[in-house]
Amino acid sequence: MPLPSSGEIKLSQIRDEFGLTSGQVAMSSLYGKGNAAASGQIRMGADFHGTAGNLIAGSITRGGVVDKTDRYIVGRHENTPNANANIGSITHSTTEQFDRFYYDVGVNKTILIKPNNATAFTKFDKFTIGGRTYTRRRGGASGTFSSVGEYHLANNYQSNYSTSVTNLSQAYSSSPFTSSSAMSFTAEEDRSFFCDTSFTSGAPSTQSSSDTKLNTSTKRDFRGFQTSTNNDFANNTTFGTQSNITITNPDFAASTTSIAGFYVRKIRNWNNSSFSGAPTSTEYHIICVISNATPPAPHPNTAGGGSYTSNASYWMKLNGLKRFEITVGGTTHYYPFGQHRSSLLGGTISNAGFEELSNSYNWVMKQSNGSTRNVGTSPWNLIGSGNTVNIKLY
Q: Which of 53, 80, 138, 193 has a CA between 20 and 30 Å from the CA of residue 387?
């Protein structure tokens, strides 16, 4: 059962929820639990209100059947494909559940799962059964952010949340259901960070542009940081911290790239080329610039393979990125990846998430119809100019 969403939380409650050793709780044992970081300060309320030890946990007794296409299905399935057979049994100790959890000894030898709702599917990062841990962060084929889920061990996302797993870090040429007896399993969220660092926000001089044909004029202002002059979204200017932020897969240190810019862009439009009178419209956009250098694959088996395209877009997706946490002066904003998943992941800006633009390394907050989201003044005011901005990515 999740911890209380407000009020006092006792260490004994955290110990019981996360299955820690009985007796006195060492603060170091809380790292990586709930919303706590892997190191640094532990905040009882902010890090543990409403959190749970496992999103999904239970026990499975395998069953098996050979279907009509001569594939062998083992695990739990209430109505196996091409066989119409109910195999195996499963029990849960959590509200979130796996409706299906099985191994398909077909051409691709895949593990398939079906959580009972999209929220659980989107949030959990790894599952463990039979001594094996399967992680979202070692994807080996292309994918797309989706409202259905984002389990990045997958080729794709299907409407029933049943997803085939590919290129795992551990061999899966054999079934994970290694015992005929009941086997316990867990599926949990992992908040190990790809980056946890700070930059000092800057604000360059207002940039102006005029279009005489349309007799319109625009002024752009920026708050955040940008390291490269080769970025027309920031009017080819640099500001704020003048060094890229390295982002590294915590499950595979060889898979790394960097952030070359993170800023809010304020756009004011006039209906005349002399900027007279009040602007006719004002919008605010959040932009993240990923290095356009070729990033390595998140799994060594895909390096140089046909299933991996070496660009920022696939790197972000296959490493299973979920969201940014941006903190200034104790106030935190959450910006998810995927325009459909704000409600599932708890985004600060409703109905919006980071999506790539056509060049794959410029990312902007978009809304569900695919258009750039006007995020309002809140992010602009949060980042400010001259502020210390902590940025976490997981």
A: 193
What would the pLDDT profile of 1-15 be if each residue is shown by its tens digit? 567 767 788 888 877
Enter the tokens of residue 223: 């708050």
Structure tokens at 17: 């929820």
CA-based max dimension of the chain: 78
- Asked if residue 71 is part of any domain, the answer here is yes
Statement to judge: residues 91 and 28 lie in one domain: no
The residues with which 100 forms a beta bridge, in sequence order, are 114
Of 139, 165, 188, the one marking the end of a domain is 188
Q: Are residues 116 and 25 in the same domain?
A: no
Into how many domains does the chain fold?
A: 3
**12: which 2 tokens?**
């004994």
Q: Answer for the pair 356, 367: CB distance below 8 angstroms, yes or no.
A: no
Question: How many distinct helices (H) and strands (E) make up the chain?
Answer: 6, 21
Other Cβ atoms within 10 Å of 278 Cβ, number: 7
Measured distance CA(350)–CA(340) in Å, rounded: 10
Q: Are residues 170 and 263 in the same domain?
A: no
- Residue 3 falls within a domain, yes or no? no
**Nearest Cα residue to 272 out of 213, 217, 338, 321:** 217
Query: Are residue 28 and residue 71 in the same domain, yes or no?
Result: no
- Say if residues 167 and 140 touch (Cβ distance below 8 Å): yes
Identify whether the C-beta of residue 269 lies closer than 8 Å to the C-beta of residue 280. Answer: yes
- Type and span of the H or E element at 326: strand 323-328
Whole-prediction pTM: 0.78
Report, in angstroms and rounded to the nearest whole number, the Rg of the chain calculated over CA atoms. 23
CA-angle at 151, arms to 33 and 197, nearest 5°: 50
Burial class (CB in 10 A: 0-12, 13-18, 19+), 295: buried
Q: Measure the CA–CA gap between 316 and 139, rounded to whole angstroms.
A: 10
256-299 confidence digits (pLDDT tens): 899 999 999 999 999 988 899 999 999 999 999 988 777 776 65
Range of the domain at 39: 11-48
Task: Assess if residue 6 is contained within a domain.
Answer: no
C-beta of residue 169 within 8 angstroms of C-beta of residue 13? no
